[in-house]
Amino acid sequence: MLTVVDASGSLSMQKKMIGKRSDLLTSRSQLYFAVVILALFYTFKGEVCRERVGWNTRDMPGQPLESLAEYKGFSLFMWQREDTLMQASEECDVVLSDVCDKIQHSLDLMKITRLHNPALQMNIMLETSYLKKNTYFEANLQALDINIIPREKYVAPVSRSVRYKQIHQESGQPYPADMLTRFCEISDAANELNLRRVLLIDSDVGLFADILDVFKDYPEDVVTPCSWCSQFVLFSSEVLSNFCDAQLQFLTEKQYAHLRQKKPVIDDMAMLGLFLTEDWQKEQRFTYITLQDETPSLRNLNPAKWIAAVSVQFYDIRVPYVWHSRLNSSTTLGINFDFSRVESDVSNSANRAHLNTDCAPFYNFFDVYTARSTETGTTSAPLVSFKGTFLTLPAVHFQGMCKIAVVHEIYVRHELRKLPEFPVHLRNRGGTMPI
After folding, report:
1. Residue 384 domain-assigned?
2. Residue 35 lies in a domain
């Protein structure tokens, strides 16, 4: 009897404890759910206010101004070879034509980046001997307050850049050496400028958001949309320097022979992937995050925006998320994509080709618009969002034909909206853009 009573009493006690634990778990779940909903609400609300109405987050009522001191040590770096991207002209500034579209895109993206980042330190490394011959391009850099870093200073005979270039050529690597030496050149400049963090972007990448606000919750040493996305990488200065050294080590040191067998041909994308996932990360134990693979969180509610940001040329919402996230570096970009054969098995060879190689369907999947303030009536900056949504892309890599077919049109339409009478007859290739 006593045993039975004790057992039932114990069972009763267990039920009470389980009930309390269940109530606690329920409370925690409800709290977590409430936090997520609240975050989504304020994020959505902020996006509406900032993007659609045109307020900058620094000017929104009820939000304290951020100190410009936060920008100290954080810098944007761009890099150009020779004068291939310096051909922009005043005559083409707000004119759409095949010629203008081709020569303006790099400068257009710098202007868009500056519109979204008025206080950000922006630098461009280039060969000043070419710059002097392109006065309109030089004048625009000055107007945009972009610091000009002379490349000649960082390709001296004793520099890491020159050492790597020599080894690169001696090893018979087919790609241009400066695809990789630029990281060494920028690293040396960043160290000289005492920078803490450096965001490197290619000339066909534009920032469509306040990038400091985007990355304020990312303390990692390397932040990039994907492991091969060398076109858009935020480095700590120390790890950027280590990345330069890793390139030299990869081609020369015996301990990395197994990686040379794995990747006999190296370029900047492949090297970044090796650096983040192979021996160097394990040895140096630096931290990194690939944004498209991050679990949705308060700092990255929708990782899909980063997949679109770096693969906008061949992004297609009809293709499964997992396919984009794993195979958007496919080497078979030229094959027409057969949607009837899309399967969940991403290893299927039918899924390894991209559709939008000519960028024609760009406007089928993205909206481009200029926000206008309801208070002042002034325009802010061009924005790119998923079709029919408020989910804007923080940055966009306009690959291949996209940089020619889309970028200058985005910029021109933004500029012409400032005029009292917007020319509605302005042609728009490839789809509809809101007017």
Report:
1. yes
2. no
